[in-house]
Amino acid sequence: MMRRPLTKLTLVATCGGLALVTGCAAGATGAKTATVASSRAPRPAATRTWTITLSPAPDDLALAQIDFRGAAPGARVTSASLRIAVPGPFGDDYLASVAARLPGGPRALVLLVNRPSPLLDPVDVVLRVTALRTLGTPVVSRLDNPFVRAASAPRPSLCDLPLHGGALSASQLSLLRSRGGPFDAFAGASAVAQAYDAACSLPFASAFQQDVTHSGAGSTPPAPAPTPPVGKLPGEGCVPKPGYACPGAVESSRPSVAGGG
After folding, report:
1. Angle of CA points 201, 209, 180, to nearest 5°
2. 83 lies in some domain
3. Element (H, E) at 176
4. Which domain holds residue 62?
5. In angstroms, rounded to a whole number, what is the distance separating the alpha carbons of residues 166 and 174?
6. N or C: which terminus of the chain carries fewer CB neighbours within 10 A?
């Protein structure tokens, strides 16, 4: 009579063990399914992309500042973390982008000079900007045509670099990229520094404005054609020049033709 209860208890214990194993297996399967589902969930992109449109007038420039807010610790603007490209026509313009090595959050400056040429220069240049999200949220400010800007105009919002009243120098900037032929004496970081100083009413080199307003690119104005001499003979004010001779001297050098009769 004692064997039957023991048999029942053994069966119950065995079933309980089986249920426990089944429950554990089901739990493991559910966890695996949840892991697979979470791995398939979309992850936020590591970069953000947007466009900036600059419209400088011919023989003038446009300047843009990208100020990043809420950057991750240690994030800084480099050629790998910030890329600026021109996907459309560019003509003979000049473009340079730099990182500002100044106190505060990450910042970048972009210079575009409109140099008119027969290359069908676009009126508006669209820049495609791609930045790592670790740099933070970009805030863009821009200024067009500082050389014709009225002195009484409000101070541009991009003129907020911590310079303590001094001019921006090329040593405070790091060149990221440039496109187009440089100027006679200014290229890359030095051109951007001069453009910022001009835009923000800070001291800048007058030669930079001359390069921009005369289409720069190392071009030299053509020499004027020599003017013909005045008078017929040297004694009458004729001064021979290369490629020219005094008319009287030319006439006297012509051979005479003898007439016969």
Report:
1. 115
2. yes
3. strand 173-179
4. 47-213
5. 18
6. C
